[in-house]
Amino acid sequence: MTAAPDTTPAPRPDTSRVVRTERIGTTLLITLDRPRARNTVNAAMAAQLAASVDELEDDPALRVGVLTGAEGTFSAGMDLKAALSGESPEIPGRGFGGLTETVTAKPLIAAVEGWAMGGGFELALACDLIVAAADARFGLPEVKRGLVAAGGGAIRLPKRIPYHLAMELLLTGEPMSGERAGQLGIAGRVVAAGEAVATALEWAARLAANAPLALAAVKQIVHAADGSPEPAAFAAQRRRTAALAASADVREGMTAFAERRAPVWQGK
């Protein structure tokens, strides 16, 4: 007797996930995953990206995050169609994409392939390090659409590069290449197309070999010094380094150096 054909419908892929995470050693690889929409940011992506950053921050086994985009595009910025329908790509207190105003203790590295436009560029600027493919394209085209680069572009870019160069990008809305971003110091490393993620993961492994409390302290000191008078910055630094000096990791670092071995960090 011939068995009846199986008419059970095949399971549909989960299309509700627009941000994927993958643990690679002590690194959390975070991938924006709306390639058909050039990884533009809608409300769902903002919520999921914020949750991914929380996963990185809350898990002591994770030391560094790498942010990238699926299928050769970092992010083309805000999803204008979603915005016109009333969706917001911002989360109150956390900014565009749930990231641009978020303070993180752990280092974040942007691995940029393809387009990083508008809010996509601002997501990269919110990271601590940027690795860019030479043929990547960075731009803040908001003025072409009657908008302002309000996700950090107008605030952060003039602090990263000379004023007139930042204003050229902000006022013209024209893009620049990853190679040019490297020349200006926006990208710390420029690599061949397709190699940004692998290079960022190598960087992440090097960062993760350092003491996690020290990494967090560096970020806190740098952020506290931004725009502060030097006396206030040094006072804040003294408070932070005093707390760091009392940690077990500082003793472990010095002991490991004296014993000529790799340190074993406890994060405390």
UniProtKB/TrEMBL annotation:
Pfam families tied to this protein: ECH_1
Domain of life: Bacteria
Alphabetic keyword roster: Lipid metabolism, Lyase
InterPro entries membership: ClpP/crotonase-like_dom_sf, Enoyl-CoA_hyd/isom_CS, Enoyl-CoA_hydra/iso, Enoyl-CoA_hydra_C
Keyword Lipid metabolism: yes
CDD domains xref list: crotonase-like (cd06558)
Secretion signal span: none
Annotated SUPFAM superfamilies: ClpP/crotonase
Lyase listed as a keyword: yes
Gene3D superfamilies: 2-enoyl-CoA Hydratase, Chain A, domain 1 (3.90.226.10), Lyase 2-enoyl-coa Hydratase, Chain A, domain 2 (1.10.12.10)
Sequence similarity: Belongs to the enoyl-CoA hydratase/isomerase family.
Protein name, per record: Enoyl-CoA hydratase
Organism: Streptomyces kronopolitis
Record lineage: Bacteria, Bacillati, Actinomycetota, Actinomycetes, Kitasatosporales
